[in-house]
Design a protein that fits this description.
heterodimer, A: 403 residues, four-stranded parallel β-sheet, B: 421 residues
């Protein structure tokens, strides 16, 4: 078992329970609370402050990917005419919709509302529109203009005005009103959870690193799915204590840390443990990544609509290649990494196109080697084990030579 | 192979030595503003050359248009462009803008982040601000000042192009499909005033050629469109007869073409009366005339389209009243939308069914380049809508090239199928 090569966190079971409880609540214990499907970058604080229960189809896609059940769902979507080149989260979701309760985990519960924010990609727009047609459910599209250079004042005003619209939309379709006090409380939970998550990631600056990429990927679930809840804050407190203890006692995530690496892009969910074990075997630990830190953004103080607008428009996936290249570079330096691995994720064009240029620039500027691995986050049909192993081996030899 | 100029704007600087050009890829770029700033907007499409340089920058799952455009630039074929403008449409174009900026650091590479929620109540004021920022950037970079008057002028010139292309589209059944799309292609490469004059003459000629078929051919008119000194020649007002206008246009669009399909290289003076199945083309762009030739050669007839290098380019004029930037913004929000825009599918679907009715189309052909996500997303629901309306349809997925035996067989089978219905 490749999983054995990992030191399991003590709070792993708490995490599983937390996520299971979230899905069970979504399905059975909402007691009339309206349910919204939301994208991972949606301003969920507003929805929670209006007593709307959010679920995340992207998280469902990742779960199905990790369970090896995404391909069957993708095929179901392809049978409806959707191209196999489209995002595999989206295809998994479409496949799940058509399979109803027979889908893995019983599928996602039917939404009362759909809230789509395009700060992560353009695909979510088409995906949520398809869901809106399928369920005949109202959809709100929050348009957050992409930042090629700097965030403009009129972009913030544009997004803030749409957030006001969003409140009216939710009120119209659910009858729930925005509770300003609750919003403040929820924003405070969001900020506590993100601060803890950020601190946990910071702890990986230690040598040896207390966490490896699979730990980061598995433990990011609450910061997406349960961000802005008391439960998330509680879980991250617990995780923080455990990780801190590892650091204090000099316990590393992998047996012998020889190399420290940074990861770019979404995980290869269906190979989460096996893929990283190739690195573990050679003493390489992923001490940071560009993806799971994407949800560690603090909501600034001030007028809440403007703050939400500013924060959600500035998420890293809504910013230029140069910005994301700089982010990678900063991580490499901040975490004293020896190299970086970029997942060229066929499903995710906005995250992946441009990686070649980023790799060249980053390698040049901080003089550490990088490698690009071709794969897909959920669709294992495009994953070639042999090719991946060869790439990793060559990369590790470069690291050996450099070290 | 089309005309080399149309294929890859190869001899653009030789043709227009005194003109300045800025490149773009997508119809969400306001050509009017570039015109007002003294630039000729030049639209890049996929060239026929094999990719030599772009593979080091863009993955294989990136669409051929983005790869080819970048490849042309990296190969040094676009040196005459003083800048590139990228609008926010799909994720790929968004990335391409940044890749371009990284690889051409001195070049004026800028973006216009068009709103996605075009039907939203706040899209207009946002877009006006974004267009004004674009305008300021042009002014700052090139040390110019663009007046409202110049913008108004740009709008009028482009509205005329739209109006003339609209007139041409009404006569599209008198023109071979390849010629029709070649003329459209030329409209995105040539200085607009020059193009407008040419097309106006051609339309006039087409109409009068219906009345007087036997006018003598006047020599040398064709050279007007192909020589590089045409700017100097314009003083010589050449009187063009109907026939010569036709041959002039022919030589513009067809010189260099060998083995033209029979019957395709001339204007037909009346509607095609033979039983040619009437087709509508749907897709992001048509960049390869060989597909149109194939359809024609197999007996099909393209009567309408929902293509960004086709009708979507020229429909919906800009209002000539009031503030020009406001008017430009308004057009982008109202036009038949690209599938990247929120709420686009119902509008596209309705428009497509409408087109099929108005043009008595017997089939719809989707020409979808591989890895074009927005169009791939709309295909299943559009196909469903067509099924419901009883309109047969065919999906052609294209990669670097569209030719090939399989393509031929599929089109042939489709045409046979709809002929029997």
């Amino acid at each position: 078992m490749t999983e054995k090569r990992y030191k399991k966190l003590k709070c792993a079971e708490d995490l599983t329970r937390l996520v299971e409880r979230h899905y069970a609540k979504a399905r059975y214990f909402r007691f009339g609370q309206p349910l919204a499907w939301v994208t991972s970058g949606a301003p969920v604080e507003l929805l929670r402050a209006m007593d709307v229960f959010p679920v995340y189809p992207e998280n469902y896609g990742a779960l199905c990917g990790a369970r090896g059940e995404a391909v069957a769902l993708c095929q179901a979507a392809e049978a409806q005419g959707y191209s196999g080149d489209l995002c595999s989260y989206a295809r998994s979701s479409l496949g799940m919709m058509s399979q109803g309760k027979k889908a893995p985990l019983g599928g996602l519960p039917r939404p009362n509302l759909l809230v789509c924010c395009n700060n992560i990609c353009g695909t979510v727009l088409k995906w949520y529109e398809a869901a809106s047609r399928f369920y005949d459910t109202p959809l709100f599209v929050l348009d957050t203009p992409f930042i090629h250079d700097q965030l403009t004042e009129y972009s913030i005003q544009y997004v803030a005005a749409q957030l006001q619209e969003l409140v009216r939309f939710v009120q119209k379709h659910t009858g729930r009103r925005l509770n300003q006090n609750k919003l403040k409380e929820i924003i405070s939970y969001s900020n506590q959870a993100t601060a803890l998550w950020q601190e946990i990631r910071e702890l990986c600056r230690a040598r040896p690193s207390p966490l490896n990429a699979p730990d980061l990927f598995v433990n990011m679930a609450p910061i997406v799915v349960l961000r802005s809840t008391k439960e998330a804050v509680g879980f991250y407190r617990q995780l923080h204590a455990e990780v801190q203890e590892r650091v204090q006692r000099g316990i590393g995530a992998i047996p012998q840390e020889r190399y420290r690496l940074v990861w770019d892009n979404i995980a290869i969910w269906y190979r989460l443990y096996r893929f990283y074990s190739y690195f573990v075997d050679r003493g390489a630990c992923f001490v940071a990544d560009t993806y799971t830190g994407g949800w560690a953004m603090q909501l600034q103080a001030g007028e809440p609509f403007e703050c939400l607008a500013r924060t959600y428009t500035s998420v890293f996936l809504n910013q230029s290649l140069e910005y994301r290249g700089q982010l990678l570079l900063d991580l490499i330096q901040h975490f004293s990494a020896d190299g970086f691995v970029m997942h060229s994720n066929r499903s995710c064009k906005p995250y992946s196109l441009g990686q070649y240029d980023v790799m060249r620039q980053v390698s040049q500027r901080c003089r550490v080697p990088g490698v690009i691995i071709e794969a897909d986050m959920c669709d294992s049909r495009v994953y070639s084990e042999e090719q991946v192993k060869t790439r990793i081996q060559a990369f590790m030899e470069t690291l050996d030579a450099a070290g | 192979m089309a005309h080399p100029f149309l294929d890859s704007c190869r001899d653009w600087p030789a043709r227009y030595p005194n003109r300045r050009a800025i490149g773009y890829l997508c119809t969400y770029v306001p050509e009017e503003i570039l015109h007002a700033a003294g630039f000729v907007p030049v639209r890049l499409l996929k060239a026929n050359d094999a990719i030599a340089h772009a593979d080091a920058h863009l993955q294989s799952y990136c669409c051929a248009l983005a790869r080819s455009a970048l490849d042309q630039a990296l190969a040094g074929k676009l040196g005459f462009l003083e800048g590139m403008v990228f609008p926010h449409t799909c994720d790929t174009i968004q990335c391409l803008a940044d890749v371009w900026r990284v690889n051409f650091p001195g070049l004026f590479v800028t973006t216009i982040v068009q709103p996605v929620a075009v039907e939203g109540p706040h899209a207009q004021s946002y877009l006006v601000a974004e267009l004004r920022r674009f305008l300021r950037r042009l002014e700052d970079r090139f040390g110019i000042s663009v007046t409202d008057e110049a913008l108004g002028d740009g709008i009028r010139v482009h509205n005329r192009t739209r109006q003339l292309l609209g007139q041409l589209s009404l006569r599209r059944e008198q023109v071979p499909a390849t010629t029709y799309f070649d003329i459209l292609r030329a409209s995105t490469l040539m200085p607009k005033e020059e193009f407008n004059d040419l097309l106006a003459e051609m339309l006039l000629a087409m109409d009068s050629s219906l009345l007087a078929k036997n006018e003598s051919t006047e020599k040398s008119c064709s050279s007007r469109f192909l020589t590089t000194e045409n700017a100097e020649n314009t003083e010589k007002k050449v009187k063009i007869s109907a026939r010569s206008a036709c041959s002039a246009v022919k030589s513009l669009f067809f010189s260099g073409v060998k083995n033209e399909p029979r019957g395709e290289n001339a204007f037909t003076t009346s509607k095609v009366t033979s039983r040619r199945p009437r087709l509508i083309l749907v897709g992001p762009y048509l960049d390869d005339p060989s597909l149109l030739k194939l359809i024609h050669g197999l007996g099909g007839q393209v009567v309408a389209d929902d293509v960004c290098t086709g009708s979507r380019y020229f429909e919906t004029p800009v209002s000539e009243d009031g503030d020009p930037v406001q008017a430009l913004a308004q057009r982008y929000l109202e036009r038949r939308p690209c599938p990247c825009k929120a709420g686009s599918l119902p509008r596209r679907s309705e428009a497509l069914i409408g087109l099929a009715k108005v043009h008595q189309a017997e089939g719809v052909v989707f020409v979808l380049p591989k890895f074009c996500d927005p169009h791939a997303w709309d295909y299943p629901p559009l196909a469903q809508a067509l099924d419901k309306a009883g309109v047969p349809h065919l999906l052609l997925e294209t990669e670097q090239t569209v030719s090939g035996e399989q393509m031929r067989t599929r089109i042939q089978a489709f045409l046979e199928m709809i002929s029997y219905q």
